[in-house]
Amino acid sequence: MLVDLQKYLPGLSVDVRYATKNNFTGKKLYKQARVFALYPVARALREIRAELLPQHLDIKIYDAYRPYTISLQLWDVYQDDRYVATPQKGSRHNRGCALDMTLIDTRTGKELDMPTPFDSFSNKAHDNYNKLPAKVLKNRAMLRTIMEKHGFTHLNSEWWHFDFLHWGTRPILDISFEQLDSLEVPIKK
Ligand SMILES: [Zn+2]
Fold it and tell me: Where in the sequence is the domain holding 140, given as residue range(s)?
């Protein structure tokens, strides 16, 4: 079941770009700034935060579960299958296993320096792009290392995108955030 990550992970930082116009489409696609993911994903994030917080670090989520209908809208705006999922395939985000995220310094609340801003579709966002300051390379590696340690795989064209184990076996879902609220599934702590 999909878990409300902000309820499950107290104090979680989010910047849900698709709930604002500050995303590559320039359009507000979500009515609410919400982040949901499958329960095993939420549990892995809890373990990741337990490791990061003593180091004055935390995660910040840009996007998580995305209803299939929203992916269709993204496709309408930007029909380029290098960056946006086609209607036939659906998005990894439709499965509740994908996360777009970065790291923040909890002392300042600021994002660590990464190769590009979120959703910057360019070579600079690729894993094999290394013409970057040492600090940026270190931050990118730190994010990837902790995510992989906890069962996530990384998409090599977007430094911010991770998929949880067995994501390909999970069904594509089209439940709106509002419908998820009304399901009221009790959360296992
Ligand atoms: Zn993504």
Answer: 2-183
What is the domain-level CATH number for residue 16?
A: 3.30.1380.10
Q: Rounded to the nearest whole angstrom, what is the distance from the C-alpha of residue 78 to the centroid of ligand 1?
A: 15
Q: What is the pLDDT of residues 121-178, one digit of tens each?
A: 889 999 999 999 999 999 999 999 999 999 999 988 999 999 999 888 999 999 999 9
Distance CA 85, CA 89 (A): 6
Q: For residue 162, give the 3-state DSSP assignment.
A: strand
User: Which two tokens mark 69?
Assistant: 């209908």
Assigned domain for 123 exists? yes
Which residues does residue 153 pair with via DSSP β-bridges, in sequence order? 163
- The H or E element spanning position 135 is helix 134-149
The domain total for the chain is 1
179 CA to centre of ligand 1 in angstroms: 22
pTM confidence score: 0.93
What is the tens place of the pLDDT at every residue in 28-53? 999 999 999 999 999 999 999 999 99
Task: Give residue 174 CA to ligand 1 midpoint distance, Å.
Answer: 17
